């Protein structure tokens, strides 16, 4: 249920940003080879990932049944979710390997 609540928050945030005219970051605009590290990836963010440049992602939260984990498998993008502390351990510019 926790993952479904995150999905509802994602949709709510997107609707509000559209109503208010606020632009959200667009992961489809990534134009260099990267591994995304963050607290979480929303289903809409995961759906926009450019497989050509996104080599993988790792998040602090999430589980095997989270939408981002399910979508990563279908998109064949390596992912590690639920690490609890990846954002404290990895800094921008670090070279990492995601084997998930």
UniProtKB/TrEMBL annotation:
UniProt KW Transferase keyword: yes
Biological processes per GO annotation: phosphoenolpyruvate-dependent sugar phosphotransferase system
Gene3D superfamilies, per database record: Phosphohistidine domain, PtsI, HPr-binding domain
UniProt xrefs under Pfam families: PEP-utilizers
EC nos: 2.7.3.9
SUPFAM superfamilies: Phosphohistidine domain (SSF52009)
Keywords of this entry: Pyruvate, Transferase
InterPro entries: PEP-util_enz_mobile_dom (IPR008279), PEP-utilizing_PTS_enzyme (IPR050499), PEP_util_AS (IPR018274), Phosphohistidine_dom_sf (IPR036637), PtsI_HPr-bd_sf (IPR036618)
Gene Ontology terms for molecular function: phosphoenolpyruvate-protein phosphotransferase activity
Primary enzyme class: transferase
Domain PEP-utilising enzyme mobile positions: 31-100
Protein name: Phosphoenolpyruvate-protein phosphotransferase of PTS system
